Automatic annotation (TrEMBL):
Keyword DNA damage: no
KW Electron transport (keyword) present: no
Example GO molecular function: cell adhesion molecule binding
Pfam families associated with the record: Fasciclin
Protein keywords: Signal
InterPro entries documented for this protein: Adhesion/Biosynth-related (IPR050904), FAS1_dom_sf (IPR036378), FAS1_domain (IPR000782)
Protein name: GH20264
Originating organism: Drosophila grimshawi
Length: 670
């Protein structure tokens, strides 16, 4: 009996060696599923089920080998693929715990069999995934059986090799199962690469925060490395509260295991000071953390601070440590210094490309930013610059400077302030680029809030809000403003301010032409508020304009607003043309449009047919034209009261009555 099972184990081992030493996890899954004898077997060792790389390590380790023969245990076995990715030695006993735990039985932490019994942390996330430290248990591959000694044993296959905290070979004392305090104190003897923690350690000692790092339980500790204290004054800003802000009590966060973008309460969370910390992954795959000081005080200003994780997921006795490249909560650079920091950052900086574009355009923009005492920047992410339409523009310094200036606001504007401005309507904010405005919209509350910003026809979403600097804020956005990426039709369709004009153009088939990329349109688009005003002024005409039966007239009216030429007319062009003539004559589908454009108090107004119409949003650029959003349609009296009892005719009695009521109301209000 013994001989037989020994033989079959050997046979299986040979088979595994030959066939799947490099097999992917998927192959392994098939193997286990197909082998019906195995899945039913008890009283057999699961040595033969194990990925061969781990098996050979296990057999060489006498403690592990005898555990498997003699004791109850749980073994976390990395796939062969995980081994291929793994560098450095593997600590077999760190993968074994001396009690059998099925997936359901795994609690928050289990003791490993390594010297000192350092714990392994279990995370069960919302998707039902289970993680051991940073390794995921592959669901269908767990096996449970009773060995020949009658001991219950469980094997879970995981997708990463588990890495315990280890000392450098040169370390003098024995180092096992350190808590976070011992970790900080003995950092120089640990295997942490080039990362040093001397500055932070001395501040921690100075502030007497030892107990925070000694606290039993399972916490997350963020430790800034010396590299992050190059600014000489920075270390003095690390006070007791700042240190609190680097600890997330009673929560263990391994980067692969935890939900990202979920603010966690730090140890600095009380009445006068509230700091949250969240983990997030940048597009390039690099893990970051950010602190958000929601309520600040004199020493701890409000706002977000970002830090890259330089070494993640180091397990300690009372939780997990992540080394970060700069301290959180500390706001001690200007916007300019912040942008300049991406110069030295090599491939790493989230705003590297933005900085390069500024310098390529001559650097004056940066000088301009530096001249502002209060400033907010909408900074496009590296990925945002990866669009083909930018290629032609980027060589044109003047145009590029205008575009960059469109991303700069002379004010300190965080989301809280934007929200105040945004209470009932889309908030309009001037930029450094004269006569160009940004429009903000905030939807949702708290951490679910989505902030969008529109500038020069581009609607961008804020990816990282409120990155705080001494003189303002940086918001990272997902698109470059002012560089068009949709047609006039695409813009009309998606812009919340133009939906009435879009609707009218749809049913009257006026819109059909607007997707034509061979054309250059200049389109004066009445905004929704403008159409609402006509509803007050001419209720029945307004109603009819939006009825399918009268679509011929709606189309006619819209055609008056659409200039078709071989190039577009910006508001600046039109204002300049108006200097030399009474009326600028612009070609339209049927005939022509005669307008004047003037500037009043830094804004453009359109003079048409003895009417003055505000240009609410000039120069919304599209790939096949430009849109100017205006406050009122180009609507004539004769459109309303057409001879021969035409469709749009208002009852004149009605108008008189309405006027009478208005006058009465006005008097009453006075
Ligand atoms: C491991 O255990 C098996 C079964 O008990 C035994 O046959 C083998 O000799 C052991 N290997 C080592 C290297 O101790
Ligand atoms: C910034 O200020 C300096 C000195 O006041 C001035 O010479 C320079 O032209 C300004 N630069 C910009 C871009 O505004
Ligand atoms: C840029 O976009 C192209 C295609 O749109 C994509 O293949 C490429 O990976 C992108 N590059 C970066 C750095 O995002
Ligand atoms: C913007 O307008 C101000 C005041 O109207 C003017 O002083 C400044 O030169 C203008 N800047 C640019 C870049 O046109
Ligand atoms: C940007 O587009 C979205 C979706 O169309 C819209 O909800 C939002 O209001 C727009 N933002 C601005 C500032 O116009
Ligand atoms: C407009 O054209 C683009 C491509 O040029 C196309 O993807 C889009 O679907 C078109 N829109 C409509 C409404 O036809």
């Amino acid at each position: 009996m013994f001989a037989r099972s020994g033989l079959s184990a050997l046979a299986a081992l040979v088979l595994l060696c030959c066939c799947c030493s490099f097999a992917a996890a998927a192959d392994l899954a098939d193997k286990l599923r197909d082998d019906s004898e195995l899945s039913q077997s008890t009283a057999k060792s699961f040595r033969r089920l194990m990925p061969v790389r781990f098996y050979s390590l296990l057999e060489q380790n006498p403690v592990a080998n005898s555990t498997l023969s003699l004791r109850s245990c749980t073994i976390f076995v990395p796939t062969n693929e995980a081994f291929q990715r793994h560098k450095g030695p593997t600590h077999v006993l760190y993968h074994i715990t001396t009690a059998a735990f099925s997936k359901d039985q795994l609690e928050k932490a289990v003791s490993s069999d390594m010297d000192g019994n350092p714990p392994l942390y279990i995370t069960k996330n919302r998707n039902g995934d289970i993680y051991v430290n940073n390794a995921r248990i592959i669901p269908s591959l767990s096996v449970e059986l009773t060995n020949r000694e009658g001991k219950r044993q469980v094997m879970h296959i995981i997708d990463e090799v588990l890495e315990p905290l280890t000392a450098l070979p040169s370390a003098k004392a024995e180092i096992n199962n350190l808590d976070a305090l011992q970790f900080i104190q003995k950092a120089d003897q640990l295997n942490l690469g080039d990362n040093k923690l001397r500055t932070y350690r001395s501040q921690m000692t100075l502030m007497k925060k030892e107990t925070l790092y000694q606290a039993p339980g399972a916490h997350t500790f963020l430790l800034p490395v010396d590299e992050g204290f190059k600014l000489s004054t920075r270390s003095s800003l690390v006070d007791g509260k700042v240190i609190d802000g680097h600890v997330i009590p009673n929560t263990v966060i391994f980067t692969a295991a935890s939900q990202h973008d979920e603010p966690k309460t730090s140890a600095a969370f009380e009445d006068q000071l509230k700091v949250t910390v969240s983990f997030f992954k940048q597009k390039d795959g690099k893990m970051h953390v950010k602190s958000n000081t929601i309520i600040g005080d004199a020493k701890h200003p409000q706002g977000v601070v970002l830090a890259e994780i330089v070494r993640a997921n180091i397990p300690v006795k009372n939780g997990v440590v992540h080394l970060i490249h700069r301290p959180l909560m500390i706001i001690d650079t200007t916007v300019t210094q912040f942008l300049q920091s991406f110069k030295d950052n090599g491939e790493n900086g989230a705003l590297r490309k933005f900085y390069e574009v500024i310098m390529d355009a001559g650097g004056a923009v940066l000088e301009g930013i530096n001249n502002l005492s209060e400033v907010t920047i909408l900074a496009p992410s590296n990925e945002a610059w990866n669009i083909s339409s930018i290629d032609n523009i980027i060589r044109d310094r003047k145009r590029m400077t205008d575009i960059l200036n469109m991303h700069i606001i002379k004010d300190r504007l965080n989301v809280e302030k934007i929200r105040e401005k945004n209470a009932n309507m889309i908030a309009q904010v001037p930029t450094v680029n004269n006569r160009t405005f940004l429009y903000f919209n905030v939807k949702g509350e708290g951490t679910d809030a989505v902030v969008t910003v529109e500038g020069g026809g581009v609607n961008a979403t804020v990816l990282q809000a409120d990155v705080a600097q001494t003189n303002g804020f940086v918001h990272i956005i997902d698109r470059v403003l002012g560089v068009p990426h949709t047609t006039v039709l695409g813009k009309l369709e998606s812009d919340p301010m133009m939906s009435d004009t879009y609707k009218m153009g749809e049913f009257s088939h006026f819109n059909d032409q607007l997707n034509n990329t061979q054309r250059r349109y200049t389109f004066f688009v009445p905004r929704d508020k403008g159409w609402q005003k006509t509803e007050v002024d001419y209720p029945s005409a307004h109603k009819k304009l939006f009825m399918r039966d009268f679509s011929y007239h709606s189309k006619n009216l819209l055609e008056r607003h659409l200039v078709i030429a071989d190039h577009v007319f910006t508001m600046k062009d039109l204002a300049q043309m108006s200097l030399t003539t009474d009326n600028v004559v612009l070609p339209t589908f049927r005939d022509s449009l005669k307008v004047r454009v003037e500037e009043e108090a830094g804004r453009y107004v359109l003079l048409w047919n003895y009417k003055k119409i505000n240009v609410y949003r000039p120069d919304v650029e599209c790939t096949n034209g430009i849109i100017h959003v205006i406050d009122y349609p180009l609507l004539e009296e004769k459109d309303i009261v057409v001879s021969g009892g035409s469709y749009l005719q208002e009852s004149s009695i009605c108008i008189m009555l309405a006027n009478l009521i208005m006058i009465t109301v006005a008097k009453f209000l006075n």
